[in-house]
Design a protein that fits this description.
alpha+beta; ibrinogen binding protein from staphylococcus aureus fold; seven-stranded antiparallel β-sheet; five-stranded antiparallel β-sheet; 14 helices
Length: 553
Amino acid sequence: MSFDGLMLRHVIRESQDSLIGARISKVYQLEDFTFLFTLRKHKNIQLLISASKQNTRMHISEQSFDKPYNPPMFCMFLRKHLEGARIDALSQIDNDRIVQFTLRKKDEFGDLKTLHLYYEAMGKDANLILTDESDKILDCLNHTHPFSDQRTMIPSAIYERPNDERINPFDTLNVEKIFKTHHFDNHKSLLNTFQGISPLFTKEFVHRTQDNSDQLNVFNTLLAERNFEILKHKKMVFSPFHITHVEGTTERFESASKLLDTFFGKRENHQLHQQHLKQLRSLVNKQIDKQQRKIEKLNQQLAKNEDADNYQKKGNLLLSYPHEVTLGDKMVQLYDYENETLIDIALDREKDAVENAKNYFAKFKKMKKSLPHINRQIIRAKNERTYFKTIDDQLDYAELRDLLEIRDELKEHGYLKQSKSSKKQAKKASHTTFIDPDGIKILVGKNNIQNAKITHEIAKHYHTWFHVKDSPGSHVVAQAPIDELSETTIRSAAQLAAYHSKMRYSGSVAVDYTEVKNIKKIPGHKGYFVTYKHQKTIYIDPDESFVHSLKKL
């Protein structure tokens, strides 16, 4: 369901007591089209308004948000005019998706002035418009210039509301009149007749009136319902009424704002997760391919350089048979008594036998000298490839916060550009903590930053460390000595280690476990690679349902 006029009506009705009389203390532009207004009325209130094409909505939010370091121009404009202003009134235009905030604020001369903030929650045409008392536009988020097919939306123009001739569903007289003369048997006719209702509403209406129920009564019942729910079917939908025309699992909420906060929080989290995952996966795959090509090229060079002895042999033969070489020759064929074979030797025809021999000896020395360097380059490229393959495996089970930490790690190593704001907003690693059935805390790191933190910062030397054997995966730490762990805790920790690894879809996965004091970081490697000793091994079949059943802190 889209954010329609009916849902907007519920939000305004339940929010008025909190918003009217509140003062705007801060304005943030979280994304290109999403704004967070921090209000104060006895307590702090967060009002979120989004003019995003896909996530249009307005509601009070209890989530925590990352505040941008550098506010865009329109955000600075809103801060200038709205911070310190008080909300005097809040109303919806008929049942349309338009909200009008009436605000009062003292100007630089101490005079009280009135402003109007209009929020048009119209999907791809959504907008946020600030006007003066006479509705002259001071500025708006999305500009529409004169001579276009749409209303003019630029500073100094007069704000005009969209023209909608459909019936307001809360206009009782007109609604009763239309139902006396019309019988609605399809949802499109209902959409074309009434203002601010969504296709989900009309489909539910048609479904409920299939048994020839009183259409006016069903219509008014749907308008009055306050059953705020999210329905999970093929996709998630939300509504302020109980949905009966589609089967699925339902999650209920006590208010419209809590429903919207949860629904869009999950949706935006998923969208951001997919966006970051796609970008990181692309970068990682390019780096793996790059290092693979580099290794192949270096191996070819290594094979060529390992044949350096042939250059030395050719030089020695030229010195042994200088009389066989004549200036101007491009090639000479000399007999190698050691291998009892003829060898073709290419020549610089402008040089004699001795000078050509010197050239071959110089090539021999250069190749011999470069061999250690090439070997070091191959080792370095293999380490890089291993590092990125580990990152690639971590992406398979990373949540959004894990992806952001992986992104920070790649920025730190110079694979992604690091802006000043990202340096300012650097965060601590956020591992996941589970509680097993015996009440033991089990820490799980899902990227290199988290692995380093839980293994060598949080864990005590006597805690028990788990990791899949001979495969990339999460570091898992049970916060108890190994000899005090029950079989339940050992199996729980092993399940977490196997599930958060490349082996999550395999059977009988080998998981090693040992005391943290037996773990040692391998120096000189990017990422977090360790060696360990005195380990025991348990074989486990990863069980996703068991992992999800464990309690998280």
